[in-house]
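Mods, move this if it's the wrong board.
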Amino acid sequence: MPDTELLIVGAGPAGLFAGFYAGMRGLSVTLLDSLPHLGGQVAALYPDKKIYDIAGFPAVTGRELTERLVEQAHTAHPDIVLGEQAAHLEKDADAVTVTTSTGRRIRAGALLITAGIGSFTPKPLPALDGFRGRGVHYLVEPPQSYAGRDVVIVGGGDSAVDWATTLVEHARSVTLVHRRRRFRAHARSLERLSGSPADVLVDCEVTAVHGDDELEGVTLTATGYRRADILIPALGHTASLGPLTDWGLTLRDRQVEVGTDMATSLDRVYAAGDITAYPGKVRLIATGFGEAATAVNNIAVRLRPGEELFPGHSTERAAPWPT
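Not the wrong board. Structure tokens:
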């Protein structure tokens, strides 16, 4: 017997919504993610950045959206496994079994991959070796936690510029360091930056960091020593599908090819969200929500022959869960 009817690999927005929807279809569900928290890339990389293209929200931060999705997903009473990567896939006639990076085996009636861009690791800044966790933040914490701190941000893309304009409202000082003169960030973000009190240094690099138990300052090529107790390297991330590339899936440019029912080339294995590829694909969170619902409804029919593909309108239910 399977441990769960549906195993979802990836607990970002698409995976969380799929977990909720699986519960609405009466399926038992397990959520698995390599990160130590729910919410995926949205929660990890831009929790306090506003998102404007989510239906029903004129504007919502990544943190707020994640909180709503987690609350919704919990109504399905999922089993949640965090901090473990999906490493190995086995298939038989009745189920699929995923072995995680810790050796945990999860046998499921079907598998739904909602892993987004895959696992992602920050691009390193060699001068910071030894200071991670001692003042170097590769993942940014809630803005209010930087009150009274001297923050140096390194990078020239959207993340670096957005964090500079966000944290300048909370920190004692914010310095943005970019090794080129031209920024890659969106023009509107650069307008906000130019109107903020952040100190922007171009043609500049961090050559050394200073401190004993905690970060105390940095040496910059443009100005020499500068006090800093927080340094944020916003240099981007390297994404990888990792072990998924060995599962026998049909891949196209690091995406998984799917049909209109979100089925992959492997029986009982489906995919939704940014990880999918098909003609006309548009990689938006909103698209991922629709794909998650499509996948779960097709999985319900696959696991329970005789059920209707269309679940009925949720407004027709006295409660969201089958009795």
